[in-house]
Amino acid sequence: MEAKKLSxxxxxxxxxVLWIVILAPNLVDSVLGIQMSQCSRDTCIAACxxxxxxxxxxxxxxxxxxxxxxxxxxxx
Length: 76
Prior knowledge:
By secondary structure, the protein is of the alpha+beta class. It has helices spanning 2-23, 41-52; strands at 31-36, 58-62, 70-75. A three-stranded antiparallel beta sheet has the order 1-3-2. Strand 2 (58-62) and strand 3 (70-75) form a beta hairpin. The protein is elongated.
């Protein structure tokens, strides 16, 4: 009985993996954070394009609570 339950979960897991691989190929490959003292949208985009090159998708600035510097998040 236990082996049958495990087999069913294995099939569910395999189906989920196939669904993700086949139907969702445009997922973000990576997210990179760069510390910047002055993070504007333009400087963040320029830094991300320099690091990620052709894999660059988007960039965003954020300041975590308690942090002195802002973070530039690069999506690619």
